[in-house]
Design a protein that fits this description.
With about 350 residues, the protein is α/β, with parallel strands linked by helices. It has 16 helices and 7 strands. It folds into 3 domains: about 20-155, Rossmann fold, CATH 3.40.50.300; about 160-220, Helicase, Ruva Protein, domain 3 (Orthogonal Bundle), CATH 1.10.8.60; about 225-350, Zinc Finger, Delta Prime, domain 3 (Up-down Bundle), CATH 1.20.272.10.
Length: about 350
């Protein structure tokens, strides 16, 4: 396998290769075809969704070559001095392209003074200059800047799209990967193509053969065995706090990341809830599941405490968001377990 990082090796170089952002590609291609090019674009969305890749492709489609393409990291060039230098540089004509294109990544990291300096350039830019600003935190970009840009919102790809991409890259690298393994990688990537391919590369490097297994993916990602997740969820819905807390403790001792455990638990619970309300969603076209998985989801949906599934989901979702901030990693989920069990028992007593 090449030593080049997979996400770099398979980074799209033309619009046709971009996956998961089709509406944005269509709009950009339309603006090129019509000649209606804005002087400033703002690409906003989660990390790893292709913002800078699409910015580069767009620049190339506009006829901008390497000499006239400038990429600036907003995180490390966030002072007013750097932006003032940029303002002075934009005045010069392109070397050999119709446009000079400036891509400013993580633009939300600019200081207030730097934003004010940039704003002056955005208000009266030279005709030969196009700005493409990229950010993962749109709410941190001043409205005065946003209002002067044509904004495109990037969305996280659905898990099936990520899975398909993972399988295709694995095949190109000479490896096979099954449905469960690709699903686990896609799920834990949380919508990031870059993270998905980063994990895939780690699994490939550690694999002893050309067939990537679920056990290899679990080892690399720190994901627990699915049986442990099932045990945890059945204890929760049965209001068995002792068993649920014991499972979390065992997973912690085994080195499993609690956030990974919660992410998998949320997905399993979600499917268990969907079985009860929209069983047609659990099919090949949306959420592919095998017979064993379906039996487990039906067990959850038909449980005596199935009406608490949505409440359990909310509690675990809160624990998931708080896990990264807690000094004790398992504390948020332990508190969630106690809260869930109290809710179920209190409701049962009232009945």
């Amino acid at each position: 396998m090449s030593e080049i990082a997979l996400y770099r090796k398979y980074r799209p170089s033309i619009f046709k290769e971009v996956v998961g952002q089709e509406p944005i590609i269509t709009a950009l291609e339309g603006s090129i075809a019509s000649g209606q090019i804005a002087h400033a674009y703002l690409f906003a969305g989660p990390r790893g969704t292709g913002k800078t890749s699409i910015a580069r492709i767009f620049a190339e489609e506009l006829g901008c070559n390497g000499n006239d393409l400038y990429e600036i990291d907003g995180a490390s060039n966030n002072g007013v001095g750097e932006i003032r230098e940029l303002r002075e540089a934009v005045g010069s004509l392109p070397f050999s392209s119709p446009y000079k294109v400036y891509i400013i990544d993580e633009v939300h990291m600019l200081s207030n003074a730097a934003f004010n300096a940039l704003l002056k350039t955005l208000e009266e830019p030279p005709r030969h200059v196009i700005f493409i600003l990229a950010t993962t935190e749109l709410h941190k970009v001043p409205e005065t800047v946003v209002s002067r840009c044509q904004t495109f919102r990037f969305h996280q790809p659905e898990i099936p799209a990520l899975q398909k991409h993972i399988k295709e890259v694995a095949k190109k690298e000479g490896y096979s990967i099954d449905e469960k393994s690709s699903h686990l990688i896609a799920l834990l990537a949380e919508g990031s193509f870059r993270d998905a391919l980063g994990t895939l590369q780690k699994v490939i490097v550690s694999s002893s053969d050309k067939k990537l297994s679920i056990s290899e993916v679990e080892k690399i990602t720190g994901a627990p065995k699915r049986e442990m997740i099932k045990e945890f969820l059945l204890a929760l819905i049965s209001s068995d706090s002792n068993q649920a807390l014991l499972t979390v403790a065992n997973l912690s001792r085994a080195g499993v990341e609690i956030k990974v455990m919660l992410r998998l638990s949320l997905e399993e619970l979600r499917r268990g809830m969907l079985v009860g309300y929209a069983p047609e969603l659990l099919g090949e076209n949306y959420l592919a599941v095998d017979e064993d998985e379906l039996i487990f989801y039906q067990t959850l949906s038909k449980h005596d405490n199935a009406k608490f599934l949505s409440a359990i989901l909310r509690e675990l979702l809160t624990a998931y968001t708080e896990t990264g901030l807690a000094t004790i990693q398992s504390l948020p989920v332990e508190l969630a377990i106690i809260s869930i069990v109290k809710q179920i028992k209190l409701s049962t007593q009232k009945e």
